[in-house]
Amino acid sequence: MAGREQPYDPYIPAGNAGQGGSAQYEGGNTRTAAIQSQIDDTVNVMKKNLESVAQRGEHIDQLQDKSENLNQSAQGFRRGANRVRKQMWWKNMKMRIWIMVGIIVILLLIIIPVVVTKNQ
């Protein structure tokens, strides 16, 4: 059995199978610690990314609410603007009618006395 290779055991670090050297075992621990540190860093980055995605979702919801409010405000403004436009159109038409009536009255005041004086 001295010439045979030991079976693979996942719990024994590589290069340490069948050897009692503590230097290689410590190297395996530092390597494992380094890998664990990288895994922890990766997990922390992923947690931060998930938090960012959650915050982005909240921001999107807030933007959606604001855009809906803005849309409703725009519709209200459009209705109000149309109402004011119609009111101003009627006011303008009333002014034109009053001006036309005024011109007709002035013309009648000028024409009637001239016609009356010519007929006498």
Automatic annotation (TrEMBL):
<keyword id="KW-0175">Coiled coil</keyword>
<keyword id="KW-0812">Transmembrane</keyword>
<dbReference type="InterPro" id="IPR042855">
    <property type="entry name" value="V_SNARE_CC"/>
</dbReference>
<feature type="region of interest" description="Disordered">
    <location>
        <begin position="61"/>
        <end position="81"/>
    </location>
</feature>
<protein>
    <recommendedName>
        <fullName>V-SNARE coiled-coil homology domain-containing protein</fullName>
    </recommendedName>
</protein>
<dbReference type="InterPro" id="IPR001388">
    <property type="entry name" value="Synaptobrevin-like"/>
</dbReference>
<feature type="domain" description="V-SNARE coiled-coil homology">
    <location>
        <begin position="31"/>
        <end position="91"/>
    </location>
</feature>
<feature type="region of interest" description="Disordered">
    <location>
        <begin position="1"/>
        <end position="31"/>
    </location>
</feature>
<dbReference type="Pfam" id="PF00957">
    <property type="entry name" value="Synaptobrevin"/>
</dbReference>
<dbReference type="InterPro" id="IPR016444">
    <property type="entry name" value="Synaptobrevin/VAMP"/>
</dbReference>
<keyword id="KW-1133">Transmembrane helix</keyword>
<feature type="transmembrane region" description="Helical">
    <location>
        <begin position="95"/>
        <end position="116"/>
    </location>
</feature>
<keyword id="KW-0472">Membrane</keyword>
